[in-house]
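Supplementary Methods, section 5.1.

A reviewer requested that the exact input to the structure prediction be made available. We therefore reproduce it here, unchanged from the version used in the analyses.
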Amino acid sequence: MGQFGVDGASMGRLGGLTGAVWALAFGVGSALAAPANTAPAAVRQTLDRIETAANAQDLDAVMAAYDSTFTSDTGFDHGQLRQTLATFWQQYSTLTYDVELLNWEAAGPGAYTIETRTRVNGVQTLPDRRLNLEADVTSRQRLENGQIVRQDTLAETSRITSGTNPPTLQTLLPSRLSPGQSFAFDTIVVEPVEGRSLMGVAVDEGVTATDFFEPRPVVFDVLSAGGLYKVGTAPARPDQRWISAVIIREDGLVVETRRVSVE
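The structure derived from this sequence is encoded token-by-token as follows.
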């Protein structure tokens, strides 16, 4: 398929790159949560400080907003988050972050539980191609004395594209599954095939600090129809997975990833 071939190294954490946004997190909300426009100044100042530092790729300033005892559902601690961000920023030299506060709730003296939505756009320039990243992460975090001490990501979508006309995908995938549940993963290329060849692969990966930049060998199949149609089975125990569809056409490449919670 020419210049749009993808090797195992470049598949390493293509889907989960958005986890390095800040390893942001999301929750289903609380009946007691208050709207964003009523948030205390301390909450807004913390988020503004992180957004400004992230856009400047000021690693020290970003990490100053995370407590040294920071924990997350993906296994990132303070040191691992710092290392992952540094690697991510080396790969994507052009990045923009937009953070929206959704709601907040008091959780004790100087403590708050907040929900945020972060949108990230970035560009990575490789010798033979340009990768464009779009990510959307909704998050739940606990703030204590102006620092983040805990976050748990339950929703995440990312898209990486390359080429003059990357395929447009329509993806059907549950966001939550029960342990052992069977599920369908359908990824449809919206544009008519019109005799053009398509190649693709579905990739199922763990959501952990260990998995984040681990290279993944992949083998592409020639797609006889206009997309990927797979049936899978959720893990037998509670887990979180990154599930990606990688579609290649002669005029472009797209990698679309969704996070699925098994609970």
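Residues 41-55 form the longest helix (15 residues). These observations are discussed further in the main text.
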